[in-house]
């Protein structure tokens, strides 16, 4: 015992000694950049806390955490009469997002009046010239200064602290004059959750000696990195999808203030220098000419400021402005937008190619200095910029405007929840919409397949959005079916594609909101205004009745899946109708969710639970007391009402998996379904007990693949009854794995290409809706000849394997960076509940799936369009039947080579494997949380898969 105590004492003393040594060893050396001059120089007020006093280090010396930033701006709001602090949102992790309105104390005291005047000027049509002139004289110009929307692009937020302090505390006469004439709104930290993740990684990866190597973890970070928010959304792609609370709050705030200038502080590659606007082509045609002109004025002034410091910089080059979902969305509302891209610098500094060390403080200084230069330009040109803004706003509602004779129609449908989500976006963006209470005859109509009609009738209760509004450029940018791309841009893109496979397109070339949402819509070449009514928000409804035998939620509504998921979670029995039904004279679509008295009478409180879930999901619940389906439609006790099983969902994550795809699916489960699920580290799967789950989702990946052991464990689990769902690039490994599934990739199918073409033809023939007795029952003789799908193969001259391989290698180079394509869906398959026959799918260079099963291709690329003059012909590997054209492109850039390559391949496949099933999505089905049509397919797969696709339950 004594020996034990002695040993314990020695161990303790040794531990203290080692800890003391470790403390000395871990004491950090001075951070490079300590010798860099303070950013804040000048005469400042004594009563405003300096950043250094609060943070414990000079601003820009280190990276401030979200908690420090929020605490400091709150402190400043109590110390200065030049500021008003507003919390505009909270992140998913509960962190506050603020903006600070900074101006002279006199302006802050009359802020409500100024805001009202700005709003009045934003709707100038009814204002006299004298009134406009008076308001222009009296109203400060507003600048919105936004920083670090990507959490690991940290210098912007730290520069915001310098900017805020300087504006609040400087005694300089020029600063006072600027604050008399401007409202400077600073949004210092647009992504606090991502920044928190990033600053924690900085802390975890610091060493005692400074590290200048851009490849080290200190600089690169670790999965899932700090760029994205809690659900791994890129918030700089969310400015009109508005999926996340950070975006929704910010958009509303920006729209309330109608800023004339918006800057957005970013970072880019560590070995670069500094980029700012204006952008290069392609530039969206709905950005006003005056904004493009003013962008060049700001750039000239900013360049002159940088020249005085001998700092390197460049403009444009890789930065284009076609996609309207960045922060530059404000340009479509009249703001001048300037992007900053500072080369990424971690706290230790970066060794550049010329051998010099760029400190973090210098990076922060670049952003701080740029903001002052831009504010100076705005101040000098305040009245002229304001005048152009008002002129543009007036022109948007002019009868001679290019937007005057254009309207958008979202056709009436029964997907209540998805329509309401669409209308919520219109509300956030300040876009006016209406509904037609009577059928409405319209002319000059273009549908989403590009088909033009002289006259059509709009169904009752469709959504009408006339484009003759103040926000006409924004409406056109997000609702027009195609963004115009100049011939010169197409030529350059084609040249780059052929030369080295590069691109001038920085993001997707298609983003039409109705297509992304899977809502059928028309463009109408006239201003629709007469006979329209206000559209009322759709609310949950619970339509009960005496002697109810069942409660139904129409399958056309996405909320039906949400209700089913939450009820199954509560151990309530749920059924789904696999074909249309008619009960109590009410039509119900296939996929309708049914909760019957017979299934649940033994469960207490089930009806109250149903009512609560309906309220939570916004669903419309209809009670019925008639179980007999009208006509030959299914009865309540028939096999067409299939009993579901509770899904127990797991999703693979961690290294190699795309944080975006993973996060978007995670967000869908949490927000749309609201059910428990598990996230599994992929490297641990071979040692995990997968019997706890009956659904396993494998998101797309950035790099690497699953180990052989993991693949084998997943295969055994599927054979025992699991539903495996694989998305995006992860599909490739499963399609190539030996004997895992029958579905193949396009390039691996050429050996037996005729079999795939035969399955394609059988599927098309099985969907034909007419047949004649003359050719079947009225003929008693054996036919001399019959038609075979392959009989014209020699005449059509299909390519052989060598030719197909060469064709594939050539066409693959032209695959899109993001285009919306038309697909045809199998309307008899349970995976397509709530999805129209024609479904827009956002596609890039994704795997192209091939199956020999007629029922295995649930969604195929291309829609058959009648053309009596069209002959049977080959497109690539596949046959297009006589009397048909194949329509594919809906929106975005799709080269003819890529169209031919993609045509008739499958986007979504499903096949049985053992007692389980494998479901493959060729691309991310919930891209940026906005592809609602394909997201519905994923919801069906996760919630209905265990009950409708697996033959045997797993042992749980």
Automatic annotation (TrEMBL):
GO terms for molecular function: metallocarboxypeptidase activity; zinc ion binding. One of its GO terms (biological process) is proteolysis. Keywords: Hydrolase, Metalloprotease, Protease, Signal, Zinc. Residues 1-22 form the signal peptide. Pfam families: Peptidase_M14 (PF00246). InterPro entries: Class_I_gatase-like, Peptidase_M14. Belongs to the peptidase M14 family. This is Peptidase. It comes from Thalassotalea litorea.
């Amino acid at each position: 015992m004594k020996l034990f105590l002695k040993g314990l004492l020695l161990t303790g003393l040794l531990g203290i000694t080692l800890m003391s040594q470790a403390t000395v060893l871990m004491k950090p050396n001075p951070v490079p950049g300590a010798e860099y001059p303070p950013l804040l120089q000048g005469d400042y007020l004594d009563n405003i806390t300096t950043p250094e006093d609060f943070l414990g280090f000079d601003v820009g010396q280190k990276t401030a955490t979200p908690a420090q930033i929020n605490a400091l701006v709150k402190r400043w709001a109590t110390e200065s009469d030049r500021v008003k602090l507003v919390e505009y949102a909270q992140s998913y992790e509960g962190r506050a997002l603020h903006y600070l309105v900074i101006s002279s104390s006199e302006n802050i005291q009359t802020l409500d009046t100024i805001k009202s005047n700005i709003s009045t000027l934003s709707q100038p049509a009814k204002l006299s010239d004298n009134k406009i002139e008076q308001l222009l004289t009296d109203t400060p110009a507003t600048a919105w200064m936004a920083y670090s929307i990507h959490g690991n692009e940290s210098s912007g937020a730290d520069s915001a602290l310098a900017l805020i302090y300087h504006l609040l505390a400087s005694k300089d006469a020029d600063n006072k004059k600027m604050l008399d004439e401007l409202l400077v709104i600073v949004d210092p930290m647009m992504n606090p959750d991502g920044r928190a993740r990033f600053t924690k990684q900085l802390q975890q990866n610091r060493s005692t000696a400074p590290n200048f190597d851009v490849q080290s973890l200190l600089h690169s970070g670790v999965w899932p990195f700090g760029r994205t928010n809690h659900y791994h959304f890129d918030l700089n792609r969310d400015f009109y999808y508005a999926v996340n609370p950070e975006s929704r709050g910010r958009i509303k705030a920006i729209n309330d203030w109608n800023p004339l200038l918006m800057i957005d502080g970013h970072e880019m590659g560590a070995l670069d220098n500094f980029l700012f606007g204006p952008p290069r082509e392609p530039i969206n045609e709905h950005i006003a000419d005056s904004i493009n002109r003013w962008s060049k004025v700001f750039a000239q002034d900013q360049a002159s400021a940088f020249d005085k410091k001998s700092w390197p910089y460049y403009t444009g080059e890789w930065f284009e402005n076609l996609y309207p979902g960045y922060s530059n969305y404000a340009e479509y509302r009249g703001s001048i937008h300037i992007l900053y891209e500072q080369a990424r610098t971690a706290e230790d500094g970066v060794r550049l190619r010329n051998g010099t060390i760029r400190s973090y403080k210098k990076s922060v200084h670049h952003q701080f200095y740029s903001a002052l230069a831009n504010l100076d330009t705005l101040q000098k040109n305040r009245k002229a910029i304001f005048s152009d803004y008002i002129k543009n706003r007036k022109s948007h509602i002019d009868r001679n405007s290019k937007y005057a004779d254009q309207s958008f129609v979202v056709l009436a449908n029964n997907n209540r929840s998805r329509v309401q989500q669409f209308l919520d976006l219109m509300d956030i963006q300040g876009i006016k919409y209406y509904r037609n209470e009577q059928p409405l005859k319209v002319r000059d109509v273009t549908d989403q397949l590009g088909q033009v009609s002289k006259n059509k009738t709009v169904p009752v209760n469709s959504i009408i959005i006339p484009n003759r509004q103040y926000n006409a450029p924004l409406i056109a940018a997000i609702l027009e079916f195609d963004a115009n791309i100049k011939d010169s841009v197409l030529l350059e893109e084609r040249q780059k594609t052929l030369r080295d496979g590069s691109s001038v397109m920085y993001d997707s070339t298609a983003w039409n909101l109705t297509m992304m949402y899977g809502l059928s819509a028309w463009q109408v070449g006239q201003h629709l205004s007469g006979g329209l009514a206000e559209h009322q928000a759709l609310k949950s409804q619970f339509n009960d009745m005496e002697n109810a035998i069942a409660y139904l939620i129409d399958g056309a509504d996405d909320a039906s899946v949400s209700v089913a998921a939450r009820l199954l979670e509560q151990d309530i029995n749920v059924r789904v109708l696999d074909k249309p039904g008619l009960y109590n004279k009410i039509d119900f679509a296939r996929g309708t969710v049914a909760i019957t008295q017979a299934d649940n009478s033994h469960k207490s409180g089930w009806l109250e639970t149903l009512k609560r879930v309906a309220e939570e999901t916004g669903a419309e619940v209809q009670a019925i007391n008639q179980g007999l389906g009208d006509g030959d439609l299914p009865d309540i006790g028939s096999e067409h009402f299939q009993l579901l099983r509770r899904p127990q969902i797991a999703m693979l994550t961690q290294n190699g998996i795309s944080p975006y795809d993973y996060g978007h699916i995670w967000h869908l489960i949490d927000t749309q379904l609201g059910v428990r699920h598990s996230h599994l580290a992929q490297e641990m799967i071979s040692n995990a007990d997968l019997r706890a789950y009956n659904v396993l989702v494998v998101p797309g990946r950035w790099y690497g693949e699953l180990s052989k052991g993991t693949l084998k464990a997943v295969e055994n689990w599927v054979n025992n009854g699991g539903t495996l769902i694989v998305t995006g690039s992860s599909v490739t490994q499963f399609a190539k794995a030996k004997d895992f599934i029958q579905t193949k990739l396009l390039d691996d199918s050429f050996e037996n290409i005729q079999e795939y073409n035969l399955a394609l033809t059988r599927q098309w023939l099985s969907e034909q809706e007419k047949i004649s007795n003359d050719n079947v029952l009225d003929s008693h003789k054996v036919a001399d000849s019959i038609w075979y799908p392959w009989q014209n193969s020699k005449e059509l001259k299909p390519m052989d394997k060598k030719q197909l391989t060469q064709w594939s290698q050539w066409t693959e180079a032209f695959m899109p960076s993001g285009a919306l394509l038309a697909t045809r869906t199998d309307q008899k398959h349970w995976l397509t509940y709530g999805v129209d026959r024609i479904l827009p799918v956002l596609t890039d260079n994704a795997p192209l799936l091939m199956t020999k099963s007629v029922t295995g291709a649930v969604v195929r690329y291309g829609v058959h369009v009648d053309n009596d003059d069209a002959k049977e012909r080959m497109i690539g590997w596949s046959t297009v039947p006589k009397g048909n054209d194949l329509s594919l492109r809906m929106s975005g850039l799709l080269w003819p080579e890529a169209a031919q390559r993609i045509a008739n391949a499958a986007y979504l496949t499903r096949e049985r494997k053992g007692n389980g099933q494998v479901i493959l999505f060729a691309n991310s089905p919930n891209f940026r949380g906005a592809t609602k049509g394909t997201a519905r397919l994923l919801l069906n797969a996760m919630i209905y898969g265990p009950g409708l696709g697996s033959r045997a339950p797993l042992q749980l």
